[in-house]
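Troubleshooting: if your tokenizer reports a length mismatch, compare your output against this known-good record of 379 residues.
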Amino acid sequence: MAPVNNNNNNGQINNNENPSKYKVTIVGSGNWGSVASKLIASNTLKLHSFHDEVKMWVFEEKLPSGEKLTDVINRTNENVKYLPGIKLGSNVVADPDLENAVRDANMLVFVTPHQFMEGICKRLVGKIRGDAQAISLIKGMEVKKEGPCMISTLISQQLGVNCCVLMGANIANEIAVEKFSEATVGYRENREIADKWVQLFSTPYFMVSPCQDVEGVELCGTLKNVVAIAAGFVDGLDMGNNTKAAIMRIGLKEMKAFSKLLFSSVKDNTFFESCGVADLITTCLGGRNRKCAEAFAKNGGKRSFDELEAEMLQGQKLQGVSTAKEVYEVLKHKGWLEMFPLFTTVHEICTGRLPPSAIVEYSEHAPKFPLVGGPTAFQ
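Known-good structure output:
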């Protein structure tokens, strides 16, 4: 299959060559970005339609040894800070120069903390190939005056490229050691490019399936982190598995209701894919959001999430707390706070307005969901 040309170049570099092979760049090099590079690099060596080399943009850091992180990655083939002990593949090349890393790529994989994406996109306008395709592995959303903007939409609008998403029950460290996992590629209309992403990520231990529902897949990956914060509170207060199961069930209902209010195109079946209930379960059982929320609750909310993040995550970023704030802003703007008691309560606990124990005091009441025929999109 020849690389797909995108007609909306948005002032991007025109590349008149029609190369027979895809070139892949990963924008991001944290825990999940490093695992993604391992998956992709193993496949580009096997698949004739891809160039062997996989570039990975690395935000440059100086290690305690005095060496630059990119130099160590390229010398040892290992991200010693964010994924120690795992070989990425001899064909992964770390590059600290963002513009140089993306210059020749026509398949761009975005995997950074969502709060950095707007700045990254602004730096890349006019710097990427006109035939580039993108995929986002990023959980989160931007909230603007006109409403919420999904990260895939931000990428599409600012860079003028088609952007799919990949979400799923994917704790990165487990995939890194090749424990079996699944994921979902969300796409809009072009099934052919969705299949190409599936081919690029799939391995015997990482099974990827396509789903024609970008917003549904992406919102599942985004909202489950808010529910995981709630699950962490339950764990920190030793409330037990029954309570945790109730929190997860209520959380899934709020995820579905919120998604369908924002985008009427969201499909019910999406919530039964890996990106939906499976990701919710694994994130509430493990993962950094649950872990930090458990510590927050054990400390009675007296230590901030910023402090816990710095102490417990070695440079990785929490997504659930910032996403809870973003969701709260949407709910408040639309007058939906009472319809989403779990989402609302998580944010109020995170900001110190309520104690961690309020996660059950508030969420045990049945959520009031909007009637069928109510608002279906953010105006």
